[in-house]
Amino acid sequence: MHYTPEQNLAFFSVEHIMRDVNYGWLLRYIHANGASMFFIVVYVHIFRGIYFASYAYPRFKLWLVGVILLFLMIVTGFMGYVLPWGQMSFWGATVITNLVSVVPYFGQDIVVWLWGGYAVENATLNRFFSLHYLLPFLLLGLTFVHLIFLHQANSNNPIGVEFSSIESIPFFPYFVIKDTYGLIIFLWFFSFFLFFAPNYLGHPDNYIQANPLVTPPHIVPEWYYLTFYAVLRSIPNKLVGVLGLLLSIFVLLTLPILSKPAVRSLSFRPFSKIFFWVFVVACYYLCWVGGQPAEYPYIPVGQFYTVLYFMFFILQPFFDRVESIFENSKPA
Q: Which position among 178, 191, 218, 238 bears the catalytic label?
């Protein structure tokens, strides 16, 4: 209510919220750090889903809606990052929206249409503010769809065995107590960043007002985009890089189509388990490389881990078949 989506006032309206509005600093830090916490939870949720093969039949629709939710979260978060109108906000918006220019024939026209002009300016800020407010409602609606598909297919479990309703454990009190315990631990973690390191996960350049005439020496998006950003930078060709960026998100949709494990949980599948942790390490190092300058040795390191990232999705179906042979060869 105190923010002004106008290029000459946006930066100062955020400072007004921080300094003059009662508890404005708290609300803004909850919002900014809450986005990071949201992505942490979602990434852990995705890794857990891969580890326990929660994407496998009959949960394809559930997984599909989850990937769409992830993409919408990324778009919503990106638009929100533009709103403080600091240096990283402005130049991040300029770089990322320019990626659309790779579309053949119409690319540059689409960029101008996105910007509402010939540069990132007032019209861009206005529409990003409107969409950043609107998209969470779409996210909320899709979350309910996600839950509907979850209740249709039933929840997965770490053992990977399908249970009947007679054998299942009641949600209350067992899972309520378990989830409450997890929530308390998570709130402690959140509170540490909120009260002791509120700017740790941000970039200091975003406390400098946006200046179209001064390009920052190193343009970096928020940390939760760095893995995908590193994939983009690791590919020299702009068009292929943008395709690689999109594929690094939507490649998750290939898992339920190509991977059909005989045993769901990786706890019982040694080859897949090792390769899963290689995949996690690749994601971590891509995140680290994405925050470094685009120079040697970070570019070849990023290219190496980009290959590892995509190799996981290519080789996982192969490991499924190998492990199913061993599983079927065991004596009854």
A: 178
Considering the candidates 45, 130, 155, 267, report the single residue annotated as catalytic: 155
Tens of pLDDT, residue by residue over 82-108, are: 999 999 999 999 999 999 999 999 999
Would you call 218 a catalytic residue per the annotation?
Answer: no
Establish whether 178 is a catalytic residue.
yes
* CATH class, range 222-332: mainly alpha
| Structure confidence by residue, pLDDT tens digits, 16-74 | 999 999 999 999 999 999 999 999 999 999 999 999 999 998 899 999 999 999 999 99
Query: Does residue 179 carry a catalytic annotation?
Result: yes
Catalytic residue among 20, 109, 162, 179: 179
Give CA–CA dist 104/106, Å, rounded.
6
Candidate list 54, 89, 132, 222, residue with the active-site label: 222
What are the domain boundaries of the chain?
A: 1-215, 222-332
**Active site (annotated) includes residue 109:** no
